[in-house]
Amino acid sequence: MNIKPIVLLIGLLTGCSLIASAQKKDTTALKQVDVKGATAPLPKKLSDSILVGTVTGTLKDSLHNYVLRSATVTIYRAADNELVGFQLTNNYGKFTFKQVPVGIPLKIIGSHVSYKDSEKKFLIPKNTKTIELGTVTIDRTDRVLKEVAIKASVPPMQMRGDTLEFNAAAFKLDTNAVIDDLLRKLTGVTIWADGKITVNGRPISRLLVDGKEFFGGAKIALQNIPKNSVQKIQVYQVDKEKDPAYAQSEVNVVLKKDKKKGTFGKIGVGGGTSRHYQADGMMAYFSPQTQASVVGAFNDINKTASSVSSMMEFNSFKGGSNINDDNHSDFRRDGRNIFRGGGFTMSHDLNQETDTRKRSNRQNMLRGELFYNNSSNTIISNSNTLTSLGTAGNLNQTSSNTSDNTNWGLRSNGSYSKSYLHGSLYASYNFSSRGANSKGEQMSNSFNDDTQRQTENRSTNNNSNDGRNFSLSLRGNTNRYFEPKTNRYKSANLSFAYTFGADDSNSDTRRLTSFTSNVASENRNFDRTYANRSNSTQHTLNTNLGQLLDLLIHRNRIRWDISVGNTLNVSNRAERNDVNDLITGTVGQYQPNTGLTNNSTLTTVNERPSITFSRSFSKSFENRFYKSLSFYINAQAEAFSQRNTALQSVQNIQRSYFNFVPSATVRHSNDQYGNYRAEYSLNYSTSVNYPSIFQIAPLADNSDLNSIPLVNLKLKPTYRHGLNFSYDYNSQVPKNDFNAELRLSAAQIERNITDSVFYDALNRTVRKYVNGKTNRNFRYEGNLNRTIKIKNHQFEGSFESGAGYDLFNSFVNGQDYDTRQASWNTAARVIYYLSSTWSGGVGEYYSGNKTFQGDLSQLTSYTWTTNFGFAFAFPGSFFCNTKVNFNNTKSSAQADNIYYTIWNADFGYRFFKNASGEIKLSALDILHQNRGLQNYVSNNTITQRTSNVLTQYFMLTFAYYPRGFGPRK
Q1: Where does 622-737 show beta strands of DSSP type E?
Q2: Which of 3, 752, 796, 801 lies at a C-alpha separation of 20 to 30 Å from 74?
Q3: Which comes out higher in pLDDT, residue 481 or 14?
């Protein structure tokens, strides 16, 4: 094993550690908090040797003597008001703190909505290391507390109705800290490596800022808004009244009154070795009513983006200084790519509601986005394909390709959303325009070791194409509700959605093909042009009416809920294909190819009426548990017709089908408040896949020798039966977050559409789609995720695995073969965080697949990757980040394993006031080992492909982060 990369890596980490140690001498480390314990941000000067005390007690109403649940209890040092710990009382008003300092004066403050704060001083004896405070009473706000001193304070955490609130002022962080740093300090809140947020084990569906989405992504808010702009963090559930078992949790960041306007952004440029370059910029503005942003970037280092929000995420203020930073060159991408892109977004909130919690449920929002991108690349690739023909030997094919490609796209979209008290309305449009130019050359050689036939195929393709797409969507719903004044229900559970889409495209191609064989009489040459024009329209209307029995029967005593719905889809597509061949013996004179020139019009209609029966059972105990069991039975029919008229008579096809496609679901949830939540689901479904015109009656282009299609007018639709099981588990114990998912699926596909492939004497592939035997497949996916928080240390572990198995038949040279395909993948990762300063991780990833095709072939490929990452970020100063991937790949197409290592590293320094300036040195593919290697396995064929890829370079970048929150001083 080559130890040089490891030696270099150890040297790099040692250097980072020395710098970090020097920087850390002047810092104050913070320790984390648990709702049920006594670990909150603790100052380093409190030695761990005295954090051994325990405090218990009960909080009660001073007048009625009943216990107060979900009240906030906070412990401070009496001398300087340093926060020691906080938590909420349980259902019996009790609290228990652990790891509290002994032998020093402390004070405990109890607080609750509609009550005055109650303060009590105490000291934990060093000999007993425990104290029982007994009953701590608290007065309502209309009474004067006589026995205890009252002091206005801001509790770190409190319950307001059904909303859990964290007060940002109670947490002391670095002046440059952002919301991401604040959330990591909150009890029960976990930000996972993939960006997912959980609170007490429950996943967060949305993160809002003042009741609104913040530029379309949680990451943008987390890594750009400073902590000192935040007043409080709210956590609550939505849609709990509709179905408590499947209520969604949201986090709402409430900004301070003087911080509700702000700007933030980035301007960066960089240059590197091998003449590499990059430049990017982003500027965003927000206010209580408006959000606007503009972005732009260009580079030649394989950094691309598909939207304004993704560019904003890449240019976040807190980015590039942790091991989860994904704004790096994509070394897996083929070729050397040049990217240019930019755009802007704007949204305006017409809602006049000032309560941020109510604002999130009363949307009245206008949004718009415009994004342009242009990319170009040059790809040089080589491939080796081995095809097993059984007793007919093996077909060996080698291919080399060179292509120059340029692509551009312009996308615009806009939407309006309006939420009412008992309904909602949403309208949107999307428009895109695209274009591409490509020029490619290919040379392939085939050799049959049985017939000894050897052929060579050379082709040159020049293509230009463009197109436009437009869609319009309108949807809305009304909700049935109870009117107390009339003591009756009103309205109905009605929803509708209509979508219109239109597309047109143009493509012009010239293909030169030269086919030669060791038998001279079989040589062929083609000079062919293609002019393809197409346009299509599509209409989709979906309607649903729920609680039908309640509408028909005034006092409905039937416990089943019945809903009816219908989905109608009508599409029309017109194509004109003009194909011409060079007239032999002339220069630039072409004549129509009557076998490929074609005009066609395809009309499809698909309608799916349905009726759904559902029933739910539930059992609950307040603040203890909630259990539910639901059944859904959907009786659905599907009527499908397709009508194609074409110049080529073989494509004049008209077919109609009618099928019954029922489904059924059973769901169970078990929510043990404060302990765990488990969900189970079992679903049975059916569906039909209809063959397309191009599968039934393709037009054979004899210049494409790699795949010559044949007509099969007897091709029939497939009918699929599917069974899916899912299990989700989320621990709600705040300190140690744990969640698990399991997905199992099995399917049986009748009349499976498969390949019937013939390899002719010239090693050409002739292919026809046929109905084979019943296909059976099985899929498994699962993951386990766990975090352990010990003071200011956090350990995060994850394990993922998946497997698939397919059994089907296919035909090779007329012989039927049963094929078995197996695939599997496994990933394990451990990450360590020390506050917001250090992070490190190690991971192992494996993926592979294997194909058995009777006695015809047995093909295998797999890839192992070992990943190591480390990051250090001293607040407002030095940071470094490094990642190493050790790769090992093997396939049946190669004799030996292939090893290569990708090592990237960043070193940076933040300067200026508020760390707004940045200089960074990036070293990419340090060992110069990147290889563009891919393996593909399919039926009786395995391919190994290599291509030119981005390799080692070093780059120095400068960036400035303009930021301003609140009024200008």
Answers
A1: 625-646, 653-660, 663-672, 676-689, 708-709, 718-731
A2: 796
A3: 481
